[in-house]
Prior knowledge:
Elements (H helix, E strand, L loop, with lengths): L2 E6 L5 E6 L5 E5 L5 H14 L4 E6 L5 E7 L2 E6 L5 H14 L4 E4 L10 H11 L1
Parallel strand pairs: 1-7
Antiparallel strand pairs: 1-2, 2-3, 3-6, 4-5, 5-6
Amino acid sequence: MGAFVISRRFNDEYKFVFTSRKGKVIFTSLSYELRFECEEDIERFKKTMDLARFLKFKGSGGKYFFKLMLDDVHFATSRKYSTELLLQKGVKEIMTYACKAEILDFSSNESIFGDDENLEDDDEAAE
């Protein structure tokens, strides 16, 4: 179905990406100082995505990408596509699945699986 994934940049600011049903990044947001700002913009996009505009570009390397505009403001930038048809498929994926996509938050520095030592203990217990 696709998902919005919140994470942190190297400078500790927040961002989110929209991923396809297959887990491939379609677009990346701008930076946010606070995590809740990501959540608010995701919800705003989901509610007003029919007003979104996709400005298509062809880079100097021959790859295609788009800038996603919301309320005439740059909202996000797509990944690079090798053909214009693949770019169109990316836009279609957004229009089809973004309104019902879940939000996943991977912005905390905590390990999802815990310490490596605990994993080794669990592996031994499973044997």
